[in-house]
Amino acid sequence: MKNILFTFLVSFLSIGIGTAQDDVTKLIGAMLSDTPIEEDLQELCDVIGGRVTGSKANEQAVDWALAKFKEAGVKAWKDEFEMPVLWLPNSTSIMVTGDSNFKPSAVAKYQSPPGNYSGKLIFAGKGTAEEIDKLSASITGNFVLVETDLCLDIGGLFAEYTAGAATEVAARKAGAKGIVFMASRPKGLLYRFITSKATDEDLPHLVMSREDAKRCIRLLNDGKNLNLNLDIKATTGGAFKSHNVIGEITGSEKPDEVIVLGAHIDSWALGTGANDNGCNVNMMIDVARQMQKLGIKPKRTIRFALWNGEEQGYFGSWDYTKEHVEEMSKHIMALSVDIGSGPINGFFTNGRAELIPAVEKVLQPVAALGDFPAINVPIVGTDNFDFMLQGVGNLVANHRSTNYGLNYHASSDTYEKVDLKSLKVNSAIIAALALGFANLDESDITWEQQTRPEIQKLFDDNKLEFTMRMFNVWESWINGTRGRN
Prior knowledge:
Helices cover about 35% and strands about 20% of the residues. By secondary structure, it is α/β, with parallel strands linked by helices. The longest helix has 21 residues, at about 275-295.
């Protein structure tokens, strides 16, 4: 996309921020100019591909990203941590037999135990507790089939997670052998994500293509009997070592105070992890590259974190907070960028209203690029989370959904789905935010690290227990193994 933003850049510099050549202005200009971000993204997606934590492709991506930082002259290193279990998908084979015989398209969710399974297929509507309870006698020892709403945006994704978690509880209580979820995407798209038990799942969970699931539902509603025969093959194992990649530009005046910018480098392997989250991995690399190229020296240290193990439960960022627990009070802000490549249209301030004036101030230089309202509700589901658990001020970039929701974790999450023009503009916005926070006056930093009771109050006030249970992180917070003591 060479020179595609040139006219826009000239207009932006003349109208939006004038001619002052301060560091922020120069950095914004560099981000909007021609950079290697697109070529790097294509290489990550097309050459390396899907990057499940623990796979060879994931290890290759870690080395690739480290090399990109070092080629740019940015100080960088691999940050080792332990993943609790290994689960790499190999194949999911499924056959419907009985009054109709056919082979539907389906995949197993993360940590579905490998093995051969068989049982009747029982349709339980939307899979609510009430629907499953009414059918509990027939569900015991058999598979529950659940209908889902069509999902086209991030709101639909959270609704799907929430409904699925409730179904899991009810189906397990009823003694189901497994759960088959109708895919929430059209045209045969399949996708994968975690269950609410995540690393210790004991039931097979399937996502069946929407069209095949509808066929099953029609047959069952017509009184037909259907059996499910399932064979899940996966490479499994115990704890293993993985790596984050950390790039750093050390602060010139307050090197012990840290701004963290993060995007997760792992992905599922049905697609190539382009919008989730390769585009934003390359944003981090490109912001660091341009800062280094311009010789910018922020007052505070900026760390560019490419987290691993995010899809399985934010294990890489969790480990970072444990490793740096004594320094958490010096972490001024931690940002996660993880909602694709659609235009950034605001920031989640995660229940920390005191962050809002600072966010508004540091984004003034990019006012010509859009409005960025604060959404002051806490987000559970990405790598800001363990910074929230440590009481650190944290942000998540909000985006227009564009191609994100439909292709989320799916076989269709590939390079050509990335909004490359928006990615360039987003990189300028994030660069301005990062440098702005790194250079903020002390008087503008009105927040401190929260205490554990303050963090708990945030969770209570926002009724987050169910959501945290849904992502398998509530118990570890309650028992003190995760988060601030």
